[in-house]
Amino acid sequence: MSSINLDQLYRRVIMDHYKNPRNKGEIADGGLTIDMNNPTCGDRIHLTMQVEDGIVQDAKFDGEGCSISMASASMMTQTIKGKSVEDAVRMSKAFSDMMLGKELDEDLDLGDIEALSGVSQFPARIKCATLAWKAMEKGVDSDVNPN
């Protein structure tokens, strides 16, 4: 597939997640709640997660932001559900590496998230793409290390 067609496909995937976000909302019965914002551009995320026995049972988000920020949150919540906290954090680290233009482990399947790989060419947008992931890391860290 040519790079132009791949770029168009990636744009479509990002816009689909932005216009039709997965897991938008809030988990009503408690769990982890994390609020973060990107003061540079005004993106904000409210992430709720239900973690039981080290497994992310559910993850939902709400917030405001650009298409990259909101699409990334949609993709992230979809990807981490059912994963161990360890795997979710490993995926977050891989995502951060991808945003920095580093090579990914070939065994790691990021699915739709790979559509955001082009963001690495726009340093000002990397914080937009990583906001939800940083919120997730903060949440699971606070669950493991409450003090």
Automatic annotation (TrEMBL):
Listed SUPFAM superfamilies: SufE/NifU
NIF system FeS cluster assembly NifU N-terminal domain sequence ranges: 10-128
InterPro entries named among the record's database cross-references: NIF_FeS_clus_asmbl_NifU_N
Superkingdom of source: Bacteria
Parts of the chain that traverse the membrane: none
Pfam families (alphabetical): NifU_N
Signal peptide positions (record): none
NCBIfam families in UniProt: SUF_scaf_2
Record's protein name: Fe-S cluster assembly sulfur transfer protein SufU
Provenance organism: Bhargavaea changchunensis
Source lineage: Bacteria, Bacillati, Bacillota, Bacilli, Bacillales
